[in-house]
Structure formats: structure tokens, C-alpha cells
Design goal:
mainly alpha
Length: about 50
Amino acid sequence: MKITAYKPVLNKATSKSIKTMLRVIDKQAQLVEDEIKTLVDNDKQLKHQVKL
């Protein structure tokens, strides 16, 4: 086999690996966003309670 035959395989593996990492990062970003929204909501509730 020629060495060039391995390049597409490596590229496919790398591409799949990158896509997987991006999916994981996207999921983590969603979790962080949800956490921030929760903190903001809690902050608003606390401020409202203080006003009462």
C-alpha cells in the first residue's frame, strides 16, 4: 500500500474526532448557558424578595 492511502483515513478519523469534540463543546456550552440563566433568575428573585 502507498502511504497516500492512509491520508484519507486519517482525515476522516480527524474529521469525526473534531465533530465529536464540537458536539461535546456545544453540549457543555448549553449547560453553562442554562446555569447562567438559573443564576440570573435566582438573582432576580432575591432582588424581588428584598424589595418586599
